[in-house]
Amino acid sequence: LAELTWPAILSKRHIFREVFADFDPIAIAKLNEKKVIAPASMASSLLSEFKLRAVIENAHQISKVIDEFGSFDKYIWSFVNHKPIVSRFRYPRQVPVKTPKADVMSKDLVRRGFRSVGPTVIYSFMQVAGLTNDHLISCFRFQECITAAEGKEEDAIKDKADEKRTDEVMESQVGRGIDELNFASE
């Protein structure tokens, strides 16, 4: 999307949604590449052929990541230990365009076959997806993002507790079932 500005992208968001199946990677992976890149297609009016091919190829790679990790979300968040990075910048000039963490993620994505995923693009993705909170400390969103991240952490803790309870209930039921089988065989 580097050939488009953010205002241009946002003004065409409805077209991107339509062309790219509501951004569903599974549906995008099933798109007919020849139709998508055809000169008269709506998609070709948005992006270059190279970018369109990258979008479809990346959708295929997301499917593989989902198969391996259970979700793309789990894979991506694993790079930041499932907790957003909070930067606490005072001035815009302090905000980097890429970081070592983005470089690691970029290299892993490239190794997996993703395209157009350099460290600068990936760092921008990390900011947009909430993996890093680069709002200036004076920004009203800074604290909101921290609060949201804490909620995500609490949800993760709650999910682990729920999993443990479910495991305990299952173990108890299995134990009772075994006892009943042993009792029935005596």
CATH domain class of the largest domain: Mainly Alpha
Kindly report the spatial arrangement of strands forming the biggest sheet.
Answer: 1-2
Task: Note the gap between the termini.
Answer: 71 Å
Tell the overall outline.
Answer: globular
Overall helicity:
55-70%
Give the total of domains: 2
The pLDDT mean sits at 83
Strand residues, percent: under 5%
The third-level CATH topology of the largest domain is Endonuclease III, domain 1
CATH architecture verdict of the largest domain: Orthogonal Bundle
The tally of strands reads 2
What is the radius of gyration?
Answer: 22 Å
Low-confidence stretches: 174-186
What do we call the CATH homologous superfamily of the largest domain? Hypothetical protein, domain 2
Secondary-structure element order, as H and E?
HHHHHHEHHEH
Count of alpha/pi helices: 9
Largest sheet: 2 strands, parallel
Keywords: Glycosidase, Hydrolase, Metal-binding, Zinc
InterPro entries: Adenine_glyco (IPR005019), DNA_glycosylase (IPR011257)
Protein name: Putative DNA glycosylase superfamily protein isoform 1
Pfam families: Adenine_glyco
